[in-house]
């Protein structure tokens, strides 16, 4: 459970880091599962419903950028995503009105010396809801120092308006650093030990740099909403929507609050993952590896 200070700190700054959420045994088990998945990616040659690949991925040197929806790929991920331990931590942050709904998840992997950057963005730009009681947790599967491409956040930015995530009128899932008037020197790098958990508010401006180290950085991200926060882009499957409730009961009464919104349409030119969406961003904040530059749009 969180202390009152932690809850206040989250409300003020928009993020938290909680140490030792995963045990050594859980970490070992999850890493083993990930290694099997990466091994299986040797025969994968293009992005699919499970794998998002680095541009330099080959059968000889598999480089997976993301495992999509890991909770649907292996029960070990699902168990953690729907655990009471996580729900208890998140309840004071978003669960007091109606309970907590699991939204989705991803495992972002930055392979040693090749892991891609994620440009600054607000998750809210991708999935606005009727209220902003939404957050993402990040579970580090590896120790993460400054050179591993840790998650970086701009404290307090969860209270800002929603910034422009479009290029030439088309959604690109990133904020152009040259036009955003953001003081990036205020960014905080959420470094820490494997097993630590980050929490960031859905409107928080965040991103991460290249992994320039010789060690991987694997970050298991799960997104949650208040049960009464409904996606403005619609609910394709009511049964599935309600099957994701972790605590609380289904409701047909969304809670509406006066939140700033931009709709992520027209859809990004490159779809499939945030890395793909962000390819059309002209001016970047974070460096790009040469091998990725080779496939950048001109
Ligand atoms: O993996 C990271 O460092 C950041 C990922 C992120 O913000 C995202 O996938 O939305």
Helix-strand layout with pairing:
Layout: H1 4-13, E1 15-18, H2 24-40, E2 51-53, E3 64-68, H3 75-81, H4 84-94, E4 99-110, E5 118-121, E6 134-140, E7 152-153, E8 166-167, E9 170-171, E10 188-189, E11 197-201, E12 206-208, E13 217-226, H5 238-243, E14 245-248, H6 274-277, H7 290-293
Antiparallel strand pairs: 1-11, 2-3, 3-4, 4-13, 4-14, 5-12, 6-11, 6-13, 7-10, 7-12, 8-9
Write a concise keyword list for the protein shown above.
298 residues; alpha+beta; Jelly Rolls; eight-stranded antiparallel sheet; 7 helices; binds 2-oxoglutaric acid
> Structural class, judged by helices and strands?
alpha+beta
Per CATH, the class reads Mainly Beta
Overall mean pLDDT stands at 95
The count of β-strands is 14
Bound molecules: 2-oxoglutaric acid
Strand content: 15-25%
CATH architecture, by name, is Sandwich
Structural domains: how many:
1
Order of helices and strands: HEHEEHHEEEEEEEEEEHEHH
As for the CATH topology, it is Jelly Rolls
Low-confidence stretches: none
Q: What is the terminal separation in angstroms?
A: 49 Å
Largest sheet, in brief, is: 8 strands, antiparallel
Helicity level: 10-25%
Morphology: globular
CATH superfamily: q2cbj1_9rhob like domain
Any idea what the radius of gyration is?
18 Å
Number of helices: 7
Structural description of this entry:
- The chain has 298 residues and is an alpha+beta fold.
- The chain has one domain: q2cbj1_9rhob like domain (Jelly Rolls, Sandwich).
- It contains 7 helices and 14 strands.
- The strands form 3 sheets. Strands 1, 2, 3, 4, 6, 11, 13 and 14 form an 8-stranded antiparallel sheet that branches. The protein has a 4-stranded antiparallel sheet with strand order 5-12-7-10, with no helix packed on it. A two-stranded antiparallel ribbon has the order 8-9.
- β8 (166-167) and β9 form a beta hairpin.
- The termini are far apart.
- The structure holds 2-oxoglutaric acid.
- 2-oxoglutaric acid binds next to β12.
